[in-house]
Each structure stands twice: as structure tokens, then as C-alpha cells.
Design a protein that fits this description.
Layout: E1 15-23, E2 26-37, E3 48-50, E4 56-58, E5 67-80, E6 85-109, E7 121-122, E8 129-152, E9 158-171, E10 176-178, E11 185-187, E12 199-211, E13 214-225, E14 228-229, E15 240-243, E16 250-253, H1 254-257, E17 259-260, E18 263-274, E19 279-286, E20 294-297, E21 302-304, E22 309-316
Antiparallel strand pairs: 1-2, 2-5, 3-4, 5-6, 6-8, 7-8, 8-9, 9-12, 10-11, 12-13, 13-18, 14-17, 15-16, 18-19, 19-22, 20-21
């Protein structure tokens, strides 16, 4: 029986902040605020579940606990040289309680119910085994980081922008979670949260050529993202998969399967504006070096980034 029922959440949050001018074109700010995310619904859960004696009972896991956060933030926004150079900095610390995440169980026998009270999803590679998913809470998670962003206009026709961000998101107390085949558990205290790349860097350069009857803009961008993980804490499992699908053997660990590698992407765009910009034609190439990385990975499916793509667009403004 699929999960059903209704639930209502009510919450009042607050924010206290201060902002002050430190120079003619610069300001500093700081704030403390609370935040809230209502309970997640376990779409994989059933309304009823079986206890250890095989009795049908109401499933207590249909809804997760609500997620709460106490957020501290401070930074500055500055500009120099008649606003030709802007530099912004921001630092934050988020203290989460009951942080929500997706937990995955691999290799569950098809004749065994998932902890959510439903049958496991079939794994086509192993007909007798399946996969279980559920939404859960972590008691305490701490996230801190910062961002530096800048924009520089060295000439009237040149624009250089840059940003650098750092993120640390870790579990901040002892908690056993399922990470491995057949329900193997691990204390994830100090482990990295999923979908939390430590570093991201963006660099862009644009030059404008002016000539009648319009202007040509040439722009190049580069983006770097460091390694991150998917599907809860499945990357910590000790599982090894031997794949002989195509006649050659490859071995993959859980960390291999659930890791998005670090990647760098380059894009280029050429845009021509005619007159006052009423007519625009753009040619672009995205992912020039054809870098591939995982956007999502599950037990049975993997979604990867788009290959090198290119095209032309024509826009008319009325």
C-alpha cells in the first residue's frame, strides 16, 4: 500500500542583521537567522509495515523530521576606481538539526521487505536482488564556507569576472547509517555530506568590438568543480562490483560508483548586436573539450553531462 495521509506544518522564523557603509562605494553586513524545511515524504514508504513478528503495523517512517538551521553570515561588497573594479566577499556557518538526506540499501533479497515496508526495486543485473530507498534525518550537520567574487573593467570594451567558493559540509555527531550491501552500517561522524563539492571556480572574459552598424561580443568562460558524492552515504560502502557485461572484467568500488569526479568545463560565445540591440545573433559552443561527469548516479541508472554542443540563435526585440 503506497504512503498516504495528510500533515500540516507551522513555523515562525526570525532574522537579525546589520549593514553599514565602510567606504563611499562599499558596505559590510552580518546576520543571524533561523530556517526551516518541512518534513519530507517517503514516496517509497507504505502506510503499513511489518514488525519483526510479521504483524502489520502503522509505518512510523512515512514522514521525516522537519529540518532546522541556525545560519550565521557576514561579508562585504566593495567597488574601486569609479566602479571599474568590484570585489565581494561572503562567509557563512550553518548549524543544521535533523538534516534530510536519501539513504540507499543495495543487494536486498527480492523476498525481503525494505525498512520502508515495500518490496525492493528490481536490480536487472541481479534478478534475486533489489534496491531500497528512504528519506532520513541526520541529527546534526555543520556547513561552513565562503565566496569571493570580482568583476574588473580594465577598458571600456573589456570585462573580466572571477569567483571562488569553498564549502565544507560534514556530519557533526555520531550516527550509524546504512552504507553497504545487506544493511551494513557505519558511523558517519565527520564524513562529507552528499552533493557538497569543496571547491568551485568560475572565470570569464568578454571583449566588445564596436563598428557600424552594431557591436560584436566575444566571451569565453571556464568552470571548475571539485569531487563530490551522490546517494546519501553509499560512497562509504565496501561493496565491489565486477562487471563482465561486454566480455571484459572491470571492478568498481562503492566510492567509484557514487563519486562525481572533479571536472573543468569551457564555453565560448560570439554575439552580434545590430543597432540598439533590437536584432541579436549568437553562436555558441558549450563544453568545448567534451568533458564528461556524473549528474546523478543510482544503483541502476547514471545520468551524465551533455557532450560538446554548439548552435546559433537569432533574436528580434519588438
Amino acid at each position: 500500500m503506497a504512503a498516504s495521509g495528510a500533515h500540516e506544518w507551522t513555523r515562525t522564523d526570525w532574522k537579525v542583521g546589520v549593514e553599514m557603509d565602510i567606504l563611499e562605494d562599499s558596505l559590510a553586513y552580518a546576520s543571524v537567522a533561523t530556517g526551516y524545511w518541512p518534513s519530507a515524504v517517503n514516496i517509497w514508504a507504505s502506510t503499513n509495515a511489518l514488525d519483526l513478528e510479521g504483524n502489520v503495523v502503522t509505518n512510523p517512517g512515512v514522514f521525516t523530521e522537519s529540518e532546522e538551521v541556525l545560519a550565521y553570515e557576514m561579508g562585504a561588497k566593495t567597488s574601486f576606481f569609479n566602479k571599474r573594479l568590484t570585489v565581494n566577499v561572503d562567509a557563512y556557518f550553518y548549524d543544521y538539526t535533523n538534516r534530510q538526506y536519501t539513504e540507499v540499501w543495495n543487494g536486498v533479497p527480492q523476498d525481503q521487505l525494505c525498512p520502508t515496508g515495500v518490496a525492493p526495486t528490481v536490480d536487472p543485473r541481479f534478478p534475486t536482488m533489489g534496491v531500497c530507498f528512504t528519506e532520513r534525518n541526520l541529527g546534526k550537520v555543520e556547513t561552513y564556507g565562503g565566496e569571493l567574487s570580482s568583476k574588473w573593467l580594465p577598458t571600456d570594451n573589456d570585462n573580466i569576472d572571477f569567483s571562488l567558493s569553498h564549502l565544507s559540509a560534514t556530519v557533526a555527531e555520531s550516527q550509524e547509517v546504512i552504507v553497504d550491501v545487506m544493511g551494513g552500517t557505519m558511523d558517519v561522524n565527520g564524513q562529507t555530506m552528499p552533493d557538497s563539492p569543496e571547491w568551485q571556480v568560475n572565470v570569464g572574459y568578454e571583449h566588445r568590438f564596436d563598428f557600424e552598424p552594431g557591436s560584436l561580443f566575444l566571451r569565453a568562460d571556464g568552470r571548475y568543480t571539485s569531487e563530490s558524492y551522490y546517494e546519501g552515504f553509499a560512497y562509504l560502502g565496501s561493496r565491489m562490483v565486477n562487471d563482465t557485461t561486454y566480455g571484459t572484467g572491470f571492478s568498481y568500488s562503492s566510492r567509484d560508483i557514487y563519486t562525481c569526479k572533479a571536472h573543468t568545463v569551457y564555453d565560448f560565445t560570439a554575439t552580434y548586436l545590430m543597432g540598439d540591440g533590437a536584432y541579436r545573433i549568437s553562436a555558441y559552443v558549450k563544453n568545448i573539450t567534451e568533458e564528461y561527469w556524473k549528474l546523478y548516479t543510482g544503483e541502476n541508472t547514471v545520468s551524465i553531462s551533455a557532450p560538446r554542443t554548439y548552435g546559433v540563435t537569432f533574436t528580434v526585440r519588438f
